[in-house]
From TrEMBL, chain A:
InterPro entries (UniProt xref): ChsH2_C, NA-bd_OB-fold, Thioester_dehydratase-like
Highest taxon listed in the record's lineage: Archaea
Segments forming domain ChsH2 C-terminal OB-fold: 60-120
Name of the protein in its database record: ChsH2 C-terminal OB-fold domain-containing protein
Membrane-spanning residues: none
Name of a matching Pfam family: OB_ChsH2_C
Organism, scientific name: Halorubrum hochstenium ATCC 700873
From TrEMBL, chain B:
UniProt-listed GO biological process terms: isoprenoid biosynthetic process
Keyword Transferase part of the UniProt annotation: no
InterPro entries: Thiolase, Thiolase-like, Thiolase_C_2, Thiolase_N
Domain Thiolase N-terminal span(s) in chain numbering: 16-223
Protein name, UniProt field: Thiolase
Superkingdom of this protein's organism: Archaea
Keywords for this protein: Isoprene biosynthesis
Pfam family, one: Thiolase_N
Record lineage: Archaea, Methanobacteriati, Methanobacteriota, Stenosarchaea group, Halobacteria
GO function term, MF aspect, one: acyltransferase activity, transferring groups other than amino-acyl groups
Length: 147, 388
């Protein structure tokens, strides 16, 4: 194993996911988009909606809208030190993303359907593994806390 | 094509079996099914066995041959895995095999051991039924995924935690007389409301328990039943299966279950009935919201109206359409790889008249069983009818 970045260290089955996370962390989050406009996440060889093999990268929207959320109190071991935490499913244009919703400081996570959020890559408190993190877009939630 | 008859059913008690192996549990269920059927185990031509997490829970893969030994059958044996719908798909393939005339006698069912793992490891084990890359790594647990669906449902159609508490209370009440049920205790709506949160808006009594148990069915052709003078009055007249995108976020709608819509449509078409004909249902209420989604996919309630069914009394034991008279996964328990077979066993007993809750459905002719995997990326529906 090299000491290079995560995308090279990752098991082959995870490499495209790691590269996608790298892009998300660099502000270049993308979906794979077919000519009919269906968005999906890598790794893909064909569009899961229509079977088209003509996939290209399409940028995610700058901000997304929370479609649903839950505050999880009973975690799996990998999230033991993260609980309670909020998960949310957010519409980012070509596709939806699922991730952990975090507000600034020590505020308890309190998302609502319709909230507008940004997406970034953060770390699990439990073990430092990278994960998809949503944060309130400026002025769009009650917390008003900026990061 | 031949009619498929349920010749016999066998269940273990659902609950804690800390000192028993999975093979012993399935063996008990299978022997009980043979006894109920009056069928010689030597006549079994195939074993279709459901199991989800045996590799994690018992460090035991390749379970089908082991379960053939436990049941005392020597025939092709296959393990089916489709998360919590593992036994449902195992039974479905058994039904298709008998209906096609490829076998006269098939043993189908499943087993799961779960209580020997600590709760956090069971949580982890169940979570792998979700998309590892884009859901599990993002913190989605099994209750958490259904909580996402519940909040999406509330946002789209209305409803509240209290509506879900009525589902929990109803199913706990139904489990009280069921000798196979894990929790034979009533839970009031108030107790359900006051329970601690698991994944909001779902609280403790919105969730099924962690359960050990096994189920087995002896399915036979109509001709075999007649030739052997079997008392096999219940027929499986319809089977259907559906598949959806694995990750909840990739679905067309976050508060509907199209895989179950497809499974129900196919099963009803196979049986030549429509939803109006259904008298009684056993549905996959791994969480209270799941029962609501199931009722709507089965066409028993309009979209957005299933949430009120338990509160209004339509689906209670004395209602027009009793649902989960067994106690459901919610109170009877949910050994995931056994559940699909257990639902059909319970429905068969209800229709035969020898279930402790049969009095509530004494005139029932048609029952439907709904078994789901993951967040209903997989769904199996069966129609059972009183044939004679």
């Amino acid at each position: 194993m090299s000491d290079a970045d995560a995308s090279e260290d990752a098991a082959p089955t995870d490499r495209e996911y790691a590269e996608w996370l790298d892009a998300l962390a660099d502000g270049g989050g993308f979906a794979l988009v077919c000519p009919d406009g269906h968005g999906s996440l890598p790794p893909r060889r064909v569009c899961p909606e229509c079977g088209s093999a003509d996939l290209s990268r399409g940028a995610l929207d700058e901000t997304g809208v929370v479609e649903t959320y839950s505050v999880v109190h009973v975690p799996s071991p990998r999230f033991a030190d993260d609980a309670p935490y909020a998960t949310a499913v957010v519409d980012f244009g070509p596709t939806r993303l699922t991730g952990v919703y975090r507000e600034g400081g020590d505020a308890a996570p309190d998302p609502a359907v319709g909230d507008r959020v940004t997406v970034d890559v953060g770390e699990r408190a439990t073990d430092g593994e990278r994960l998809v993190v949503f944060r309130p877009a400026d002025g769009e939630t009650g917390s008003g806390i900026e990061r | 094509m031949t009619d498929v008859r349920v010749a016999g059913v066998g269940l273990t008690r659902f609950g804690d079996h800390p000192e028993r192996t999975g093979r012993d549990l399935f063996g008990e269920a299978a022997l009980r099914a043979f006894e109920d059927a009056g069928v010689d185990s030597a006549d079994v031509e195939e074993l279709n066995y459901g199991n989800f997490m045996g590799a994690l829970a018992e460090h035991q893969g390749h379970q089908a041959p082991l379960m053939a030994e436990a049941a005392g059958v020597r025939c092709p044996a296959t393990r089916y895995e489709s998360a919590c719908a593992s036994a449902g798909v195992a039974v479905r393939e058994a039904v298709r095999t008998v209906a096609a005339g490829d076998a006269d006698v098939v043993l189908a069912g499943g087993m799961e051991r779960m209580t020997n793992l600590p709760t956090d490891e069971v949580t982890e084990g169940l979570a792998i039924a979700a998309d590892d890359l884009f859901e599990v790594r993002a913190g989605v647990t099994f209750p958490g995924a259904y909580a996402l669906m519940a909040n999406a449902y509330f946002d789209a159609y209305g409803g509240s935690r209290e509506d879900l508490a009525h589902v929990a209370s109803k199913n706990h009440a139904n489990a009280v007389p069921n000798e196979y049920a894990q929790y034979r205790t009533e839970v009031s709506v108030e107790e359900a409301m006051d329970a601690p949160p698991v994944a909001e808006p779902l609280h403790l009594y919105d969730a099924c328990p962690i359960t050990d148990g096994a189920s087995a069915l002896v399915l036979v052709s109509e001709e075999y039943a007649a030739d052997h003078d079997l008392d096999a009055s219940v027929a499986v007249t319809g089977t259907g299966q559906g598949t959806d995108r694995m990750a909840l976020g990739d679905r067309e709608h976050l508060a509907r279950t199209p895989a179950a819509d497809d499974a129900a449509d196919a099963a009803y078409a196979d049986a030549g009935i429509d939803a109006d004909a259904v008298d009684v249902a056993e549905v996959h209420d791994c969480f209270t919201i799941a029962e609501v989604l199931a009722l709507e996919s089965l066409g028993l309630f309009e979209t957005g109206e299933g949430i009120a069914a338990a509160r209004e009394g339509t689906t209670t034991a004395d209602g027009d359409l009793p649902v989960n008279l067994s106690g459901g996964l919610k109170a009877k328990g949910h050994p995931v790889g056994a559940t699909g077979g257990s639902q059909i066993a319970e429905l068969t007993r209800l229709l035969r008249g020898d279930h402790p809750n049969s009095e509530h459905v004494s005139d029932a002719e048609v029952g439907v069983a709904h078994n789901a995997g993951g967040t209903v990326a997989s769904a199996v529906v069966h129609v059972l009818e009183v044939a004679e």
